[in-house]
């Protein structure tokens, strides 16, 4: 490893011979098996600066490991340097200012736990092991987004290590072009070692949970949910997934292992008001199981942890919809069911509310007017013999839904689908602006192991 005189790396470096190397290079998606030349474990911005400088001095490709949940596995790179941020995981809450400073390698589980101690929250990842870093830089979609906006809408400032190892601040007043690009442009512009996020009063108890319906009710459940969500109050966060009922106690015996529909609810208003506000959802049915009740917000945030274990094989894609008419609902159910794998989750998330009121030009991320966002999350046990059939299922479903797609996509929900798809996420004008900002901040495209935006 070459060290520059200006930047000396004082952290731990793992090589293929080191104990812990295999665990450290593993990511959420078990299909990804990459072997970095070294993993540089950072615990400060200065160490990140030194790690970037050493990778550049050695002419090696570089990847950034936040929480390792990116389905492309871009956190690790074959034969290169993995800048590992997992040691930068502080969460410091300023309850009076209603802000939190969070390390670039922290998880949403840690963030939610620390902020909820003060009855504060921002929307966050729907699975608690997801990294704050990648999720926020992709814009950050979560259950509270219709109430409080995307995570990026609540970004106050970021501490960024640049491609030439400078440590800078990005905010509305400092480096505003960089600040704009960080809010949806992904990991293209630098390594964020600290995010400062705006918080909102919420919890610790909220009304939330899940309604579970048998698969044969899928079309009716989706139509009812769609109609309700199109005019729902901002406080209602919700998504519907075609899934397979787990062999859990709360599922009636005959439904276990069968195709079913899960409606997840997170209500950001007064929990006592929730049953009346949510009546059109709660009274539809009857469901096979109703787990909706007042519960800790952190429990809502962990509802989906059990069905999302690390190490499974994953193939994902997504699409924003212009509308979700009955024909689209029918196509979704016809091509979605029966899932090839019981782990697969075919999710529709409702837009609207606070996210739709932010000016489209305010952040790099756009797509604020789409009423529904599809996340086709194919997941199956780590058995290569099952890969092809599962990938084909997701691709066929995605193709069937194209007639209702806006042509744009939420990049955090897809795998590696090429540059054209990245461009389509932003549209030509924003993409051109992002490429210009990239030329300023990373002209050599050092940060390219991501949903890449090449410099202009
Ligand atoms: C089970 C599961 C649930 C999910 N749920 C949601 C959800 O509810 N909402 C949502 O929006 N997305 C969700 N995602 C997608 C998630 O937002 C993306 O996968 C995101 O990239 C994960 O961030 P990470 O830091 O964990 O990933 P990593 O794989 O570590 O990072 C992905 C890329 O992000 C960049 N990056 C990460 N951290 C930094 C940093 N600090 N500075 C600079 N670049 C960085 C790097 O380019 C890196 O290659 C989910 C993913 C999984 C696996």
Automatic annotation (TrEMBL):
Record-annotated FAD-binding PCMH-type domain positions: 32-202
Record PROSITE patterns: FAD_PCMH
Key words of the record: FAD, Flavoprotein, Oxidoreductase
Source organism, top-level taxon: Bacteria
Family annotation (Pfam families): BBE (PF08031), FAD_binding_4 (PF01565)
Cofactor: FAD
Family note: Belongs to the oxygen-dependent FAD-linked oxidoreductase family.
Name of the molecule in the record: FAD-binding oxidoreductase
Species annotation: Nocardioides jiangxiensis
């Amino acid at each position: 490893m070459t060290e520059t005189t200006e930047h000396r790396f004082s952290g731990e470096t793992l090589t293929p011979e080191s104990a812990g190397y295999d665990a450290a290079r593993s990511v959420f998606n078990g299909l990804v098996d990459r072997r970095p030349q070294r993993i540089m474990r950072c615990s400060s911005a200065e160490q990140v600066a030194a790690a970037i400088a050493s990778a550049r001095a050695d002419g090696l490709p570089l990847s950034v490991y936040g929480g390792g949940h990116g389905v492309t596995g871009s956190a690790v790179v074959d034969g290169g340097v993995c800048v590992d941020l997992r040691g930068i995981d502080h969460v410091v809450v300023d309850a009076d200012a209603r802000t939190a400073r969070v390390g670039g390698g922290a998880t949403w589980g840690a963030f939610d736990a620390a902020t909820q101690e003060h009855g504060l929250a921002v929307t966050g990842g729907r699975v608690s092991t997801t990294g704050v870093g990648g999720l926020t830089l992709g814009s950050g979609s979560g259950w509270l987004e219709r109430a409080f906006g995307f995570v990026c809408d609540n970004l106050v400032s970021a501490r960024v290590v640049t491609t030439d190892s400078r440590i800078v601040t990005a905010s509305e007043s400092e480096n505003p072009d960089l600040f704009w690009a960080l809010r949806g442009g992904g990991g293209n512009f630098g390594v964020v070692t600290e995010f400062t996020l705006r918080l909102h009063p919420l919890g610790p108890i909220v009304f939330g949970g899940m309604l579970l319906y048998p698969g044969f009710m899928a079309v009716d459940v989706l139509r009812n949910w769609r109609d309700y969500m199109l005019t729902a109050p901002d406080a209602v966060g919700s998504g519907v997934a075609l899934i397979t009922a787990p062999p859990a106690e709360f599922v009636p015996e005959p439904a276990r292992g069968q195709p079913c529909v899960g409606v997840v609810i997170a209500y950001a208003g007064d929990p006592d008001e929730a049953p009346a506000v949510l009546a059109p959802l709660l009274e539809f049915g009857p469901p096979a199981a109703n787990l909706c009740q007042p519960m800790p917000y952190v429990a809502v945030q962990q509802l989906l942890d059990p069905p999302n274990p690390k190490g499974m094989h994953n193939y994902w894609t997504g699409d924003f919809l212009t509308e979700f008419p009955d024909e689209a609902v029918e196509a979704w159910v016809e091509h979605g069911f029966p899932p090839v794998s019981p782990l697969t989750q075919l999710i529709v998330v409702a837009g609207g509310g606070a996210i739709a009121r932010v000016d489209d030009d305010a952040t790099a991320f756009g797509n604020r007017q789409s009423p529904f966002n599809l996340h086709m999350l194919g997941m199956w046990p780590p058995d290569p013999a099952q890969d092809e059939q599962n990938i084909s299922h997701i691709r066929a479903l995605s193709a069937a839904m194209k007639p209702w797609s806006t042509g744009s996509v939420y990049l955090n929900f897809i795998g590696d689908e090429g540059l054209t798809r990245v461009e389509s996420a932003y549209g030509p004008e924003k993409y051109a602006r992002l490429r210009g900002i990239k030329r300023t901040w990373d002209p050599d495209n050092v940060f390219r192991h991501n949903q890449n935006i090449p410099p202009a």
